[in-house]
Design a protein that fits this description.
97 residues, mainly beta, 7 strands, globular
Length: 97
């Protein structure tokens, strides 16, 4: 039986949940640009593998967030507008509307 807390969340609150999670691991399910579904396990705010430069994808005015994918061992970008489920801090967040 699933003992995790489940929360229905609006799309605009997803970034707040991810920011509050800090450096802890998170699982995110989203639809990729080519239409395929993807579940990614990783961490936000990882800086160990950076090689300098500026992240030109992430900005305050768009819905993209960079995550370090622990399975692929590299940085990936997630479009927060396509996220359907986030598992963080022992809570399952489902996006609705």
């Amino acid at each position: 039986m699933n003992k995790r807390k489940q929360v229905l969340l609006s799309r605009v609150k997803i970034e707040d949940v991810l920011n509050r999670n800090g450096h802890k691991f998170v699982s995110v399910q989203f639809r990729k640009k080519n239409g395929q579904w993807r579940t990614m396990n990783g961490r936000f705010k990882v800086t160990k593998h950076l090689r300098g430069g500026i992240n030109k994808v992430v900005a305050d005015w768009n819905a993209y967030k960079t995550i370090y994918d622990v399975q692929a061992k590299g940085y990936r970008t997630i479009n927060l507008d396509t996220v359907t489920t986030v598992r963080a801090g022992g809570v399952d967040y489902f996006v609705g509307g």
